[in-house]
Amino acid sequence: MSKLLIVGTVAFDAIETPFGKTDKILGGAATYIGLSASQFNVKSAIVSVVGEDFPQEHMDLLTNNGIDIQGIEVVKGGKTFFWSGKYHNDLNTRDTLDTQLNVLADFNPVVPEDFKDSEIVMLGNLHPLVQLSVLEQVNNPKLVVLDTMNFWMDNALEDLKKVISKVDVITINDEEARQLTDEHSLVRAARKIEKMGPKYVVIKKGEHGALLFHKDQIFFAPALPLEEVFDPTGAGDTFAGGFTGYLAQSEDISFENMKNAVIYGSSLASFCVEKFGTERMESLKHQELESRLQEFQSLTQFDIELTPTKTL
Amino acid sequence: MSKLLIVGTVAFDAIETPFGKTDKILGGAATYIGLSASQFNVKSAIVSVVGEDFPQEHMDLLTNNGIDIQGIEVVKGGKTFFWSGKYHNDLNTRDTLDTQLNVLADFNPVVPEDFKDSEIVMLGNLHPLVQLSVLEQVNNPKLVVLDTMNFWMDNALEDLKKVISKVDVITINDEEARQLTDEHSLVRAARKIEKMGPKYVVIKKGEHGALLFHKDQIFFAPALPLEEVFDPTGAGDTFAGGFTGYLAQSEDISFENMKNAVIYGSSLASFCVEKFGTERMESLKHQELESRLQEFQSLTQFDIELTPTKTL
Prior knowledge:
Two copies of one chain form a homodimer. Chain A is built from eleven helices and 15 strands. The first copy, chain A, is α/β, with parallel strands linked by helices and about 300 residues long.
């Protein structure tokens, strides 16, 4: 069983969608990644920071899902990172209503001693310098996966490029890939990103699925067509958690197996959006995941016998 | 070998994309459908209308591809339908610069005697009353496929609903499906459209692929990720031609086989957009199509062994 080290936010979110709104609920990239990865047989730990206002029940939720929390610093008298956002009617776009960095502003990540030899490191969305600091504390991981967002392209591009140059896999959404490379074609964008460092590029297209690029090979996983997306928050992180969790469990980081990891990530993300926040991921049974994988198979698998050359 | 009857425009197009522009070139829905279907062993005919200005070489092109043209009326002294459009930089949207209906304004379709027993009828994009007239002239086809567009929803909705109620399959793009049903979710939109008549609903999402719906089953075919889309004109018609051409050749209209038809349609459309107008389809060799099908297979096929229930 591989060790999976996760760095990212553990936070409070307040979310408004066309279907309702929440008060402060559990959120954060590392939370979603950890819960998603906990569907697999892995030894995982989160490196993050919270304030004294962070309830014990949330910590217990992580622990009960087999996630090591000794790397989550609790700042005495500090307040937990808070994000509030409102989704537009199409659920593809959102406005940030409020961001309170709080304890995140001075976060110095410390990797627990017994996770310094983690085989897989998942750098969730955070300041690139924090991601770099985690990388400096680990010993030769087999696979480093980076998630990031346009905010860091706008505000810390040079630092971001430095961390991009050091990772094996990057997950990024389509618009961010275009912004990073100034290429409209995702094929060209992925090629340019590979030249920046990562050997594998995952481009997430939301309801339009995800593409995995490696040299001249491409794999595509659709998103499951859903009657209703309830709350997209955390879908990308849940994808990343499924991707890395599956790779850690299977101990196989070949391109062929990454295809499966992309399918697992997509399946898990399709659950995440069914309810507010982490609610659906908290209740998710492994058996439900297995059935959904079968839906993915019937959604995409076909059996064409290549036809004989036509004769007119 | 099944007979495939195609009704649609045979026309002149003048196209401008970010990569260049053309003078009047061969275009029209039926042209693209016919050329695409000619990749298969089918006996096909086009029902359409052109003016006296339509060059013999274009007629020869259709004939040389095995398409029966006796149903293409040539109006003495008339001018051929002309459309001119300019694509925006993202190639997903376009402005119509000019539309000259010409001989299309008074088109009365006449189905040739030996195609009245066609097993498959492809109603290409045209006024719904013209599509209905063709349907009234054929004897119990096994499968009727309808393509249409938002223009008819805006201008002839009641006629369009009548033809929709009489077909087996509809192909429609995502925005049009939403407009027709007032549903944002494509799953819900497809369900509503099935209630209007068609047993099968194909929703085309351009660069994001195509979905095939039938009762509670869904199949998804991605679009091939291309480095560059050169000219999207005719891609939807080429898809329809591949879809119906393959079904006609295989003489199997089951849902399982329609999955393959969607893959063939998507493969053919991926060629169409590589050059201006019909150029790429005119030069396409069957062997090239076979290689691209293999690309589609490696793009989407995965092999997940469902994992044992986790034990923590």
